[in-house]
Write a structure and sequence with these properties.
This protein is mostly helical. Helices cover 65% and strands 0% of the residues. 7% of the residues are buried.
């Protein structure tokens, strides 16, 4: 739910757990997530009660995690906070009275979350939008 919420409305602070009356669950790290879902994973793999295989599988998954993270990062989309900050810096020059300010801000959020565009494509689009917004007549 958190991933979906962040993709649909990254700038909206919605406490879905509170709205649904559920206690908020703390964010889990990879190892904690595996442990929290241990029974489900073992059942799906047909390894119920196989503690030795579970430990080996978790250790193997954790050992391969850095490589998986690098691969996912190479696919584009959210490259990390430094790229998000770089994109945000591109739109800082838009005049606050520009009629296109809202559009530029929404475009920034959409481009930051777009996994199919390269960082350079995102920069290029934002530069074009900023140029148009800077020359738009003020309201």
């Amino acid at each position: 739910a958190d991933l979906l919420r962040s993709q649909l409305a990254p700038d909206v602070a919605l406490d879905l757990d509170r709205v649904l009356g559920r206690p908020a669950a703390p964010a889990l790290g990879p190892r904690e997530f595996l442990e929290a879902h241990k029974e489900e994973i073992l059942a799906a793999a047909g390894l119920e009660g196989e503690e030795g295989q579970w430990k080996e599988g978790v250790d193997a998954a954790m050992a391969g995690l850095p490589e998986i993270e690098r691969f996912v990062a190479s696919l584009g989309g959210r490259q990390g906070p430094e790229h998000d900050a770089e994109l945000a810096a591109l739109v800082e020059g838009v005049p606050q009275d520009s009629p296109l300010l809202g559009h530029v801000q929404r475009s920034l959020a959409a481009l930051a979350a777009n996994p199919h565009w390269t960082l350079e494509d995102k920069r290029s689009q934002l530069r074009r939008l900023v140029a148009e917004a800077s020359h738009a007549p003020s309201q």
